[in-house]
Sequence to fold (520 residues):
Amino acid sequence: MIEHSAKRRRLSNTEKDGTTKVTKRSNEIPASLSLPISPPRKMRSHERKLIKSPFQLTTIRDLSEESNIGAVSLHDILGDPLIAECWEFNYLHDVNFLMSHFDEDTRSLVEVHIVHGFWKRDDTHRLSLEKQSSQYKNVTLHAAHMPEMFGTHHSKMLVLFRHDDTAQVIICTANMIPKDWTNLTNGVWQSPRLPRLTESHKSSGTDMRIGYGPRFKIDLLNYLRAYNTKRQTCESMVDELEKYDFSAVRAALVASVPGRHDINGDDPRKTRWGWAGVKHALGPVPVQLGKSEIVVQISSIATLGATDTWLKHTLFDPLSSTRASSSKPKFKIIFPTPDEIRRSLDGYASGASIHMRIQSATQAKQLQYMRPIFHHWANDCEKGIIEEGNVQDGGRKRAAPHIKTYIRYNENKSIDWALLTSANISTQAWGEAANTGQIRIASWEIGVLVWPELFADGAKMVGTFKTDMPTKEDFDGNEPLVGLRIPYSLPLQRYGDSEVPWVATASYTEPDCMGHFRKD
Fold:
């Protein structure tokens, strides 16, 4: 929803003229000189600074207007007639759907580049892309280099160049297909409009701290240059994007690039990928003392092994990294059950995008060690075990989750940091353990990490529900308050002893909300 700026308050009659005509006798002593001298009145304390959530949710077609406050649609992102060039990175693409969201008067003039990972010539997804894009003279396809057999091009990003000499980077969790932008919950981060660099900006010093624009720019350009390993896929776009000023960006890039990468070294301009990247990004992030928990909310969990070694040591340990020593956080994972998918807006059809397997012996052992930390997406399940606390409704219980968020909460209910990303829980996305000083990654992924002090000194970050804006009552104190739009409801509800996660390939005999059944 587009927010209109408030109208200017009309001045009252007494405010129209700022001057007052006073007639005095020449020998009259001004009254001000006869008043007793007193100290000036204290200035009223400043209103608490409230900062909008850096993450937004996507609109849900079949939910109420109240649940879509602050949410963003694809047309909101692409409907600007000033867009001159668009680079679209994703796993799944529907070219007709993408093109339909540009301004109807200019869509044939926008240079559209689609980056995909279907490297096999006879891949049905690639053939479909080629057939659709052949209808548009202004669409160019680019196949990403895929050096790992089991990897995917899973990153979800748009890079826009406008006729007014601004650029913008949008990182999201939705595939470029109608289903993901209709009744599935997804998230979006949008950079500010980036102006072109001036000569003064080029020659001035840059702030290379993680979380600030110049560092974000280096990491993004390093990520984009990785596409040029075998062919010059993104060379022209990288050359153009270098000309823009990223100083207004407040976020750290956390991405994955397929291949083998050294995890050691002190080069400040080197970008680390996968779990090594998130560990490096979290290094300077302050966290509050005391108990904390990291809530991992994803839409897919790969087969990780019969023991929890990779999950605990390769993923959870890097996510526990902090600037100073603190107690180890507890981990919770949010993943829907068959009951939640059954009751979602699109019923079983929603579950086609949500994946975990529990059929093999290894997968059954994996379920055993993950079940104690599994929590529901919606906290209204009959068999779930709900935690204590005031209910806060995220407004997305019935919109099945395709979004991926990693959020560190501390015991006073404020938030230390939050990550919005395309990366699910898998070795392909985050990489394998580095036994040889190298990390091996299979897939392309991209996300953004934020924390409160990026937005204001001494700021706190709090979860917001059905809105992007915090209120001054959300947290005691007078420090600046940053909102973070939470897609799920709190408090969380742990799986009951007999509950299992949704499995997209399984059969379900109970009808969903539309009366449909699920057969494997």
Q: What stands out?
A: The radius of gyration is 26 Å. The longest strand covers residues 414-421. Residues 136 and 187 are 29 Å apart (CA to CA). The first helix runs from residue 31 to 34.
